[in-house]
C-alpha cells in the first residue's frame, strides 16, 4: 500500500520540505508521497487524531506546533526530550516517536567545515527554539565549551542551568568576542527592515573564526556579510536545513539521503546558485 508522509504547520505554503522529500522518495523509487498540511490551531487535536487513524508513516512538524505535538507521542528521543520540541515523527506499527533533527542537522553542517574539539569555545546568539536545539546537540555530541548570549538574559540562564556551560548578555558577548572560535547566530535580528540591527557588533572578531547564521534565505545575511569582511569563515543556514530534512528521511526509510540532490532542489526553488 502507498505510504504517506507530510509536514504540518501554519503557515506551510512556502515550505520546501515537500519538494525535497518528494525528490528523495522518487529517487529511491519508494511507493510513498509527501504532502504539506495547513492546520488551524483550534483543529490541531482532531487533525493529529485523523493522521493517527489513517496510519501515516511519518511527518515533520514546523512552527507553531513543535511543542503542541508532544502529548500525542508514545516516545521521545533524548534530543527532542532535552529541547522539549519535536520536528520529526516516526510511526512504527502505529507507535509514534518524536525526534528533533534541527540540532544534529546544524552540527553536521558545522562539522563539514572542520571537526569540533574540546578546545572550541562556541558562542550561540539567541535563546529561542533553534538555539535550544543547537545547544543540546553541541552538548550531547561535542566536548566544546558553549556560551549562550541573549537579549533577554534570563532565557539564556535558564537554558544553561544545570550544565557546565555559560550564559551572557549580548553586550558581554560582544566585548568577549575574540575569545570564541565559533559564533552561531540564531536570533531574528537583522532579518527584516523593522528588525535591522545586528545582534552584536563584530569589531573584535578574529580572522579565521567560524561565523554561521541559521538563515539560508537570503544566502548572505548582513551579519554574515560583516563577518566575511572581517576575515571570518562563514556558513549560512542551508546545510542545517538540508541536514535536518536528510536525517528525517533517514529515520523514516533507513536509506541515506542524497544531500547534493536536496541542495540543488532548494537552491533552484530559492533562486540561488
Ligand atoms: P526560533 O524558534 O527561530 O529560534 P524564537 O524562539 O522566536 O525563534 O527566538 C527568537 C530569538 O531572537 C530570541 O533569542 C530573541 O531574543 P529574546 O529572547 O530577547 O526575545 C532574539 N531576538 C529577536 N529580535 C532580536 C533583536 N532585535 N536583538 C537581539 N535578539 C533578538
Automatic annotation (TrEMBL):
Biological process annotations from GO: amino acid biosynthetic process; aromatic amino acid family biosynthetic process; chorismate biosynthetic process; shikimate metabolic process
Record family assignment: Belongs to the shikimate dehydrogenase family.
Cited InterPro entries: Aminoacid_DH-like_N_sf, NAD(P)-bd_dom_sf, SDH_C, Shikimate_DH, Shikimate_DH-bd_N, Shikimate_DH_fam, Shikm_DH/Glu-tRNA_Rdtase
Pathway assigned in UniProt: Metabolic intermediate biosynthesis; chorismate biosynthesis; chorismate from D-erythrose 4-phosphate and phosphoenolpyruvate: step 4/7
Any one Gene Ontology molecular-function term assigned to this protein's record: shikimate 3-dehydrogenase (NADP+) activity
Organism: Listeria newyorkensis
Positions of the SDH C-terminal domain: 237-267
Record domain Quinate/shikimate 5-dehydrogenase/glutamyl-tRNA reductase: where: 117-189
Highest taxon in the source lineage: Bacteria
Record's catalysed reaction(s): shikimate + NADP(+) = 3-dehydroshikimate + NADPH + H(+)
Gene Ontology cellular-component terms listed: cytosol
Annotated binding of shikimate, by residue: 15-17, 62, 87, 102, 216, 244
E.C. no: 1.1.1.25
Subunit field text: Homodimer.
Protein name: Shikimate dehydrogenase (NADP(+))
Amino acid at each position: 500500500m502507498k505510504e504517506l508522509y507530510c509536514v504540518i504547520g501554519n503557515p506551510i505554503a512556502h515550505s520546501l520540505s515537500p519538494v525535497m522529500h518528494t525528490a528523495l522518495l522518487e529517487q529511491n523509487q519508494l511507493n510513498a508521497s509527501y504532502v504539506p498540511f495547513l492546520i488551524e490551531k483550534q483543529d490541531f487535536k482532531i487533525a493529529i487524531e485523523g493522521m493517527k487513524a489513517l496510519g501515516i508513516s511519518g511527518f515533520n512538524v514546523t512552527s507553531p506546533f513543535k511543542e503542541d505535538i508532544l502529548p500525542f507521542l508514545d516516545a521521545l528521543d533524548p534530543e527532542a526530550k532535552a529541547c522539549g520540541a519535536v520536528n520529526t515523527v516516526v510511526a512504527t506499527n502505529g507507535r509514534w516517536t518524536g525526534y528533533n533533527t534541527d540540532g544534529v542537522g546544524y552540527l553536521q553542517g558545522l562539522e563539514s567545515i572542520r571537526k569540533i574539539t574540546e578546545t572550541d569555545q562556541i558562542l550561540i546568539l539567541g535563546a529561542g527554539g533553534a538555539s535550544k536545539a543547537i545547544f543540546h546537540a553541541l552538548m550531547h555530541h561535542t566536548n566544546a565549551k558553549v556560551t549562550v548570549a541573549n537579549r533577554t538574559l534570563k532565557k539564556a540562564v535558564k537554558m544553561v542551568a544545570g550544565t557546565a556551560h555559560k550564559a551572557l548578555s549580548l553586550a558581554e558577548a560582544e566585548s568577549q568576542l575574540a575569545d570564541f572560535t565559533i559564533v552561531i547566530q540564531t536570533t531574528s535580528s537583522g532579518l527584516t527592515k523593522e528588525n535591522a540591527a545586528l545582534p552584536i557588533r563584530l569589531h573584535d572578531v578574529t580572522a579565521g573564526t567560524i561565523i554561521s547564521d541559521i538563515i539560508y534565505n537570503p544566502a548572505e545575511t548582513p551579519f554574515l556579510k560583516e563577518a566575511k569582511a572581517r576575515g571570518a569563515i562563514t556558513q549560512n543556514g542551508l546545510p542545517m536545513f538540508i541536514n535536518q530534512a536528510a536525517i528525517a528521511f533517514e529515520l523514516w526509510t533507513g536509506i541515506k539521503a542524497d544531500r547534493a540532490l536536496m541542495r540543488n532542489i532548494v537552491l533552484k526553488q530559492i533562486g540561488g546558485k
